[in-house]
């Protein structure tokens, strides 16, 4: 069933777990994510990132995602991940997305607040959940993202607890993406998570669900510590999306005939479903 993500996050806060927010850049990946959630009997947030537009146009993927969510046997939210322009955000709303990430973290704090509040006001009028972001993730230390300015420490990008409280109060967002050590993409160094900072952020915005991007690659111990520290949604994509490439060469070369593309998709779907199932179970934080 298609629901507003606020319902999912409120339940996650109540029962100390995190909802998986899985980016789906194809029908194959959409099926993998949704089947994993249904087989585990857990809610899921199906996401489409604006940066994936060249590979998965929202006009095509949005209706597919919405139809799949409506028919699902578990609660599903339809989420726009990293919406960086007002025009694209409004396009997602017109297609029936029930959750929006207003990503204006690249701007100054003041402009981020103004732009995010404008989106939040529009979304709340039509009962759509808004995820905001204050703090960023660097790339020249680990993972992918904006480079660390010369002479600055890693903490340059981290969310400051006092400003996080101001940001939530002034924008009215329903959930907050925070930066305290995780990154987008593949980790090229072991992540160093600032759990003391996470605790301070949680205390500063105690009634707001916290979101962590960069869920791929963290250890199970780190993931559980993040959840116990207040993370209620974890974005997951990279390890799931990369899984088929590890085994496709063997699959194709071992076939007695050139495999059809739909056979490659089916093989990939099963591999990605297992990665999604692993993440969903881990994020449920059941011990």
From TrEMBL:
GO CC list: cytosol
Q: Which gene encodes it?
A: gatY_2
Q: Which UniProt keywords apply?
A: Lyase, Metal-binding, Zinc
* Claim: Transit peptide is one of the keywords in the record: no
Instruction: Output the InterPro entries linked to this UniProt entry.
Output: Aldolase_TIM, Class_II_FBP_aldolase, FBA_II
**The EC number(s) this enzyme carries:** 4.1.2.40
Q: Could you tell me which species this protein originates from?
A: Enterocloster bolteae
Cofactor binding mode, per the note?
A: Binds 2 Zn(2+) ions per subunit. One is catalytic and the other provides a structural contribution.
**Recorded GO terms, molecular function?**
tagatose-bisphosphate aldolase activity; zinc ion binding
Against Pfam families, the record matches this protein to:
F_bP_aldolase
> Coiled coil located at which positions?
none
Q: What is this protein called?
A: D-tagatose-1,6-bisphosphate aldolase subunit GatY
Binding of Zn(2+) 1 occurs at 82, 184, 213
The record's top EC class is lyase
Q: Which residues form the active site?
A: 81
Residues that bind Zn(2+) 2 = 103, 133
Q: Which cofactor does it need?
A: Zn(2+)
| Superkingdom of source | Bacteria
Binding residues for dihydroxyacetone phosphate = 185, 214-216, 235-238
GO biological-process terms attached to the record:
carbohydrate metabolic process
């Amino acid at each position: 069933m298609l629901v507003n993500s606020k319902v999912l996050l409120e339940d996650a806060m109540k029962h100390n777990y995190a909802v998986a927010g899985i980016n789906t850049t194809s029908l194959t990946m959409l099926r993998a994510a949704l089947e994993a959630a249904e087989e585990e009997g857990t809610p899921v947030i199906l996401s489409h990132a604006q940066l994936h537009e060249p590979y998965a146009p929202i006009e095509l993927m949005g209706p597919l995602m919405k139809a799949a969510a409506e028919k699902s046997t578990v609660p599903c939210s339809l989420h726009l991940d990293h919406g960086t322009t007002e025009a694209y955000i409004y396009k997602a709303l017109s297609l029936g997305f029930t959750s929006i990430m207003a990503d204006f973290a690249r701007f100054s704090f003041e402009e981020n607040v103004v732009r995010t509040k404008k989106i939040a006001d529009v979304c709340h009028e039509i009962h759509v959940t808004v995820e905001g972001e204050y703090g960023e993730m660097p790339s020249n230390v680990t993972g992918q993202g904006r480079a660390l300015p010369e002479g600055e420490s890693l903490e340059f990008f981290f969310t400051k607890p006092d400003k996080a409280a101001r940001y939530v109060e002034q924008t009215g967002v329903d959930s907050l993406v925070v930066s305290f050590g995780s990154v987008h993409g593949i980790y090229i160094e072991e992540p160093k998570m600032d759990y003391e900072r996470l605790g301070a952020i949680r205390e500063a915005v105690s009634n707001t669900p916290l979101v962590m991007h960069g869920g791929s690659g963290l250890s199970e111990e780190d993931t559980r510590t993040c959840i116990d520290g207040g993370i209620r949604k974890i974005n997951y994509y990279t390890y799931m999306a990369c899984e088929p490439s590890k085994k496709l060469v063997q699959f194709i070369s071992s076939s007695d005939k050139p495999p059809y593309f739909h056979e490659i998709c089916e093989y990939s779907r099963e591999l990605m479903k297992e990665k999604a199932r692993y993440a969903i179970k881990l994020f449920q934080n059941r011990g």
